[in-house]
Design a protein that fits this description.
Blueprint: H1 11-33, H2 38-70, H3 79-90
């Protein structure tokens, strides 16, 4: 009686290690580049520095505006400041006046 002998293929031995390598590569990539990965801390630090600089700029601008609006308080109303605001808001000047705007 003749029997067939099937040779074992080597491809069956490579399936589990290949799947393991693919899964480890996937998780390794996301552990480094993901939202909570190693590289994310550097990105968050850079974002924090930019936002802190922007906060400092906005705080300084707010302080300047608060200082200027405090001059318009009813208790100590400064007539020149009120006149300047009105002329700038209404774009008004007398015919014999020269208006020079200076950025602050």
């Amino acid at each position: 009686m003749w029997t067939r002998h099937h040779k074992r293929r080597n491809t069956g031995r490579l399936i589990v290690p290949t799947i393991t390598a693919v899964v480890l590569t996937y998780f390794g990539y996301h552990a480094y580049n993901g939202d909570y990965g190693i590289n994310a801390k550097v990105r968050y630090q850079q974002r924090i520095e930019t936002l802190e600089q922007e906060l400092a700029t906005l705080s300084a601008a707010r302080a300047r505006l608060e200082e200027r609006t405090s001059l318009l308080n009813n208790a100590s109303l400064e007539k020149d400041m009120l006149d300047e605001y009105v002329r700038r808001a209404l774009n008004y000047a007398a015919p014999n006046e020269l208006v020079v705007y200076i950025k602050r």
